[in-house]
Amino acid sequence: MALVRRRYPGPGMPVATRHSYSTTSQFRKGVTKSALKPTLLGTTETGSSLSESAIDALSENLEASNSTATMVLHVVFHYAGLLFGSLMPGFKSERLLVDKSSETGDQKPVKVPVRNETLKKEIYDLAFSTLKYQGLLEEMLLDSGFYSYDMIPDENHQPIMVILCHMMRQHFVKRPHMDAPSSIPYIQELEESLHRHTVKLNAALARNRIKFQARSIEHLLPEKVREREECSDQLPLYTWVNQLKISIPEVIDHLRDGGFQRVATLENLHGKSFLQDENCSNVIAFPPGSRGTLGESILVKEGKLVIQNKMRCLGPHSLISLLSDGDDIIHVGVGSGLTTAHLATLAAPLNSTVFGFGVRALGYDRLGNLQEKGRHLGITNLKYIQEDFMETQPGDVRFKNVKAILVTPTDSRSGVVNPVEFIIQEGEDLNILREMSQESVNTDKVNNLIADQMDLMKQAMRFTKVQVVIYATLSILEEENENVVTKAVEYINLRTAGTRSQFKIVAPTLPLTPRDLECNDSSSRYLKIAPSPVMGGCFVATVSRQDEAMSASDILARAAAKGLYSPTPQGDRLPAESIDEAVERKMKRKTPRHKQKSIQKLIRSSKSTPIAETSHSHHSNNRKHTSPTRKPVKKTKPARAATPTWLT
Predict the structure, then answer these.
(1) Of these four, 96, 210, 332, 603, which has the most CB atoms within 10 Å of its CB?
(2) Do β-strands 237-241 and 283-286 pair in parallel, antiparallel, or remain unpaired?
(3) DSSP letter string over 447-490?
(4) Dihedral class, residue 6 (left if φ above 0, else alpha if ψ from -120 to 50, else beta)
(5) How far is CA 91 from CA 123, 322, 408, in A?
(6) 536 near 519, Cβ under 8 Å?
(7) Exposed/middle/buried for 427, CB within 10 Å: 0-12, 13-18, 19+?
(8) Quick one: which of 270, 268, 276 has its CA closest to 252?
(9) Tens digit of pLDDT for each residue in 516-551?
(10) How far is CA 103 from CA 79, 82, 100, 152, 402, in A?
(11) What does the radius of gyration of the chain's CA atoms come to, in whole angstroms?
(12) Could you read off the pLDDT of 50-94 as tens digits, one per residue?
C-alpha cells in the first residue's frame, strides 16, 4: 500500500491518540490497532458503544444541569465524533492529503443509540456544526501547529474536530471539570490537549477571519448555509391540535390557564405566547426554543397537541377541503407517520379511511411504532399498507372509495432550514446533515429523486375513481416541483385521451395570507413558499379532474371549498330555484319559440299579482287588476277627431 505524506506529531507536540504513548515511534508502528477501546468510568463495558444504564445516567445529569449550554457531556463528544466521521465527505483542506487506496466510499450514517431526545439533539447539533465548519476547523488545526507535518489523521481526527467545534462555539472558554461518572478517558485526554493549545487555536481563527474579512464565524460559512442558519434561529415551533381528543377552544383555554398569551402576528410571538395559524385552522405556533417547555406539557404527553413543522401540515389541509362524506384517502410516503396521522384526524369527521403507503421501506419494526403512535393519538380510521405503491393495482377493490391521494415523496429537502429539528420530528435519514452543510446540490441524487417522484404521480393518477391528487414536497427546486407535476399530468392526459376525463392543475385551496400572496403570483397554479424565519420552504400542487360521473355531493363539496356556495340552514343544499324560474326553464326546452312569449308574459303578470287579491279578481267580472301601491300608466291611443255633422 503506497502511503502519501501525512502529518505526524513532531517532538513536543501533543499526540492526538486515544491513549498516550511514550514515543512517537509507537504511534507510527500502529499501536492504536491493539489499544483498548474507550470505556466509561464506573462501568465495566468496553467497546465503541456505551451501556444503556450509563447513557440514562448521563441523560439525567444533562437535564439536571443548570449550565447545559456551556457543559456538553463526554458522551455527546463521543457519539458526535462517530456521527461526524460517518458523514464527513473527506478532508476539505488541501494540505491534508488522502490515501486513495484506503478510501471506502460513502458510509452509512452511524445510528446513535440514545433515547433521550435532549441528549440526541445535542449530538446531532454538534455533528452538524462540525460538518458546516469542517474546512475552517482543519485549517485551524494546521495553522496552530496542533497538526504538524509527518502526521496521518487517524480515528481520533473525528472527536478532535467535534471538541474543537464546541470550543469555538463557546469562545474557547474552558468548561468546569467533569465528574468521573460523566468522563470518558480518551475524550478527556483529547480535550486537555486542545485546551493546552487554546491561544494558538484562537489566533488561527482570528487570522482566518481577517483573511476573509468576516465579522463573525458565521460569515465564514457559504452564503446559502449562512442564510439557512439565520432562519433556523428564528423559526417558530409549530404544533397541530388532535381534534379526536380535544377541541381547539379547549386547547386555547388550557394554554391561557398555563400563563400563555395569544398574539395576532408572528412578530409578537415571544416569551410565553402562541398564535393560531391563518393557513391551517388547527395549527398553533409557539416562540422559538419552546420545545423543551412544551414537550413536558400534558397536552403533548397525552397526544392532544402534536409537534410538527408547518410545512408538513399544508398538504393534509389542501386535500381535506376537497373531500365529501365517505371519501377514502391514500397517503403515499408515510415517513414518520405524523403527516398520515394528521390527515386521519382531519378525515375522521367525514367517515373517511386513510390508507398509508411507504411502510415497506421503513421495516417491520417501524410499522409497530407507527401503529402504537396511532393508538396513542386515538386514531381508528388509519390502515397501513405494506405493499409497494407502484405495484398496487389501481382497480383494487380495497380502494374502491378512494377519491383523493396525497403524495409526499422523498425529495432533496432543500426547503428545510433546521435539519436537526427536522430529524428529531420526522425521524429522517441522517444524511440530510451532510447535504444541508454544503452549498451545492448533488445533481445525480436529485435526478434519481425526480424519476421516482414522476413515477409516483403517474401511478396516483391511474386510479380510476380518484378525483384529486395533492403533490407536496419540502423542496424549492423547480425540477422537483413544477416540472414533475406538469410532465406527469401531460403524460397521463395523453395516455387516457378520449377514454377518461382529463386532469388539470388548479389553484391552491388553502386560504392565503398577504405574506403568501407576496411569494405567489395571483395567477399561479401552485403554492410555493420560500425559506424564511417564519417557516421552511415547501411546494404544494393540486391536480383535479371533473368526472362526468361525479355525484351531487362531490360537486357541492368542491363548490363550498372554492367559496361558490355556503350550506343553507336546512342542510347542505343549493338554494332552490323559484317555481316560476323552473317553469320558464322547462318550457324553453319543450315549447315552440312562438308560444314562449305568451307563456313568459303570463308568468310576469302572475309575479305582479298578490295571492290575496288574485282570488278576488276572479269574482270581479275579470276586471283588470291594478296594484294598490303603484298605479300603472295607462297607455291610450291618440283620440280620433270627431266626424262633422254636415257629413252625416
Answers:
(1) 332
(2) antiparallel
(3) HHHHHHHHHHHHHHHT-TT--EEEEEES---TTTTHHHHHHHHH
(4) beta
(5) 21, 51, 35
(6) no
(7) middle
(8) 276
(9) 666 666 557 899 999 999 999 999 999 998 754 444
(10) 22, 17, 5, 14, 50
(11) 35
(12) 555 655 555 555 555 544 433 457 889 999 999 999 999 888 877
Rounded to whole angstroms, the Cα distance separating 357 from 337 reads 10
Cα separation of 339 and 370, whole Å? 11
Given this model, what pLDDT does residue 246 score?
97
Determine contact, residues 17/164, Cβ cutoff 8 Å: no
pTM over 0.85: no
* Cα gap 234→270, rounded to integer Å: 10
Compute the residue count for the chain: 648
Cell digits for 623? 276586471
d(CA 426, CA 449): 19
233 falls in which pLDDT band (50, 70, 90)? confident
CA distance 211 to 230: 23
Cα dist from 56 to 113, 116, 158, 416, 444, whole Å: 11, 8, 24, 31, 41
* Farthest-apart Cα atoms in the chain, separation: 157
Question: For residues 156 and 14, is the Cβ–Cβ distance under 8 A?
Answer: no
Find cell 428545510 and name the residue: 416
Q: Whose CA is closest to 161, among 49, 97, 80, 74?
A: 80
Give the C-alpha separation, 461 to 443, whole Å.
27
Q: How far apart are CA 170 and CA 165, in angstroms?
A: 9
Collapse the DSSP code of 547 into the 3-class scheme (helix H, G, I; strand E, B; otherwise coil) and give the result. coil
User: How far apart (Å, rounded) are the C-alpha atoms in residues 618 and 620?
Assistant: 6
What's the CA dihedral at 194, 198, 199, 204 to 10 degrees? Answer: 70
| Residue 173 pLDDT grade (very low, low, confident, very high; cuts 50, 70, 90) | confident
pLDDT at position 58 is 57
